[in-house]
């Protein structure tokens, strides 16, 4: 202020001191408003940051581990086996509709956990009038007749290289079945089916101006401009942040609020190496996407939950 006052005096005192003070105040106010506008513009370029709810630990994906059904020493019917008093007709759902159960089998779902993007479902089954060995043979024959093949592996813990816990594992397309804990209890056979769905996953380099179809049948779900990534068509997205990609689950993705706003790139924005964001794609499926490396060309990897329980 002293400098401005001296300058103004040297020019014949064009403004009195109060006017100079007012001028300085207006200049400071303009600078402050300019800074706020810049900050607000940067924030508006990103979708709101999502907060993930806690995920359920995938303990039930352990081979031979809990939960299990402990049948009594002898049972005249399935209603006498703990847990089956109110069970309905045995079913493995629409994704596993080609599993044929022996006649009059009943069952219930124990858990539906997720581990490393693999979805699991454990179903307790009780079949009256058969022994455990007969049930195992009947299910095996039906599966083989429906195009399933016996598998030496089963993706316990989401590991596709893991071995089957015994001889009763089968594989078809993206699905696995393990028959576990079969036992005879008097006049009934009790056993568990452990079902698994393999996630659809891809890794791709995306050059500036290119689109990204998260599923082969889709049009582009995302477009990379070189500075930001935008949802395309009916797709929506939301940023999660730098986190453990494998630990983000389908149930968490389903709980988020999605947006049509783009994600901006650069060190001070959302798209940095290691960032994870969620997409609800044009096919209506949930996906998680990770930025493997950031630059004018993006390296992305993603998982799409195309089939679910």
Could you walk me through the main structural features you see in this protein, from its secondary elements to its overall organization?
This protein is of the alpha+beta class and 309 residues long. The protein contains 4 helices and 17 strands. The strands form 3 sheets. Strands 1, 2, 3, 4, 5, 6, 7 and 8 form an 8-stranded antiparallel sheet that branches. Strand 16 and strand 17 form a beta hairpin. The longest helix has 28 residues. It is elongated, with a radius of gyration of 30 Å. The N terminus is likely disordered.
Structural descriptors:
309 residues; alpha+beta; 2 domains; 8-stranded antiparallel sheet; 30% strand; elongated; disordered N terminus
